[in-house]
């Protein structure tokens, strides 16, 4: 059975360097004065604390001006209540020492490296990424991996890379998208749930109070359990998306509050019938599943959808959430073994298909698969199978259906992309050969043979100046003569 509550996986302090600075902790962990206004229910029983962070740190950390605060608070609380909200957010900013406020239009929460790579189209940003790889991973993207020693070095360089710093060409969602700023912003592609994920009753308020007094993993998990408590079956598509947003927002606001020391999101384990262990991946995956959905089937209230029309189509809004949330989710489970029981997800096929179809982002795709394979195969905590940990190569989704030919990288970046892939394939072949030399054991011979045959042929095409036939031919022979562990069972 797939272990739903798996091993905690702390990978190189992922996102230890979120571009967003940690806030100063108040000397005394008392609740800020004025939180009552943040929790004051409107006529429909919803408070700011129902949809935003427990104390408003998400709003306070961003440079929303008073007019914006008034505009958003007024419909809920009337004029004097809205004015109290403004005073409260100001007090929160000074209490937390928030002086460098994040620009709401430019800051993209959790965006690796702080900002996406520039370029007007996915293809331009993918080319920028291929070039970026030259400096981040020189051994793979600009050198030539020929020997076992070089393969090991290239793997170690790949594993040492901090994904939270590696700029990518996929823009993450802004904290808020509000049509007030123009039709382009009439979108649900943001971090905040459109509808409150659960009732702000006394037990939820108590959980928020406990968390604010003692922000930490267990108090955060308690809040997450409340947000994720409804069984999926009773939720509409829109509510499922909102639940994942609310859980992800909890993680983000915790990062704002506690900085790099905050727990990894996998500690927000599945605490009930919620979508799963990785709300960020789940949000992206829901957007994959619900692509093409109608407003009616999404099931969000008319009052919400009315203000989400006239800009990007619903399809585009959903598409704008899909890739960034999948990438973010992947970055917290880089071997992709604990995120979902779905085999296509665990093999990496789901993200490969999304990167190729929605970009295309072939250079991101080549990097993603190679890093995923390296983490799954060499990072102890990423491995969940009862078999001994071994190199688990699977480039099928990229190698099949002529994908390599169809999705090439144009321009000068193409050289870097082809070098990266040819080196990655050789690296895997050399490491596999080393492993077989020691263990003489393969796991599923036929697919492995097929895999490396294709990789050998692709390497010859990607790097025609350097015949590698021996590396691959020698490996294929080793695979044919090794013992197949799965046949022994
Ligand atoms: C039912 C959920 C919900 C409640 C309740 C709620 N908000 Fe929001 N808020 C959102 C969503 C969703 C957004 C993102 C923009 C959008 O989709 O409308 C948002 C955005 C904002 C923004 C940013 C607006 C911008 O210009 O981008 C501010 C400020 C804000 N809310 C303040 C508040 C305050 C203050 C309260 C309480 C008086 C509150 N909100 C109550 C859901 C909510």
Characterise the protein shown here.
The chain has helices at residues 35-38, 48-51, 57-60, 66-95, 122-136, 138-141, 148-160, 202-213, 217-227, 237-258, 279-289, 295-298, 302-306, 314-331, 343-347, 349-358, 362-378, 396-399, 403-406, 413-439, 445-462, 469-481, 485-488, and strands at 441-442, 483-484. With 489 residues, the protein is an all-alpha fold. A two-stranded parallel ribbon has the order 1-2. Helix 10 packs antiparallel against helix 11 (279-289) and helix 16 runs antiparallel to helix 17. It is elongated and about 80 Å long. Mean pLDDT is 90; it is low at 1-21 and 269-275. The structure holds heme C (HEC).
Low-pLDDT windows of residues: 1-21, 269-275
* Secondary structure tally: strands: 2
Order of helices and strands: HHHHHHHHHHHHHHHHHHHHEHHEH
What's the helical proportion of residues? 40-55%
What ligands can be seen in this structure? heme C
Radius of gyration: 24 Å
Shape: elongated
Q: Could you describe the largest sheet, including whether it forms a barrel?
A: 2 strands, parallel
Query: What is the distance, rounded to the nearest whole angstrom, between the alpha carbons of the first and last residues?
Result: 18 Å
**Helix/strand class:** mainly alpha
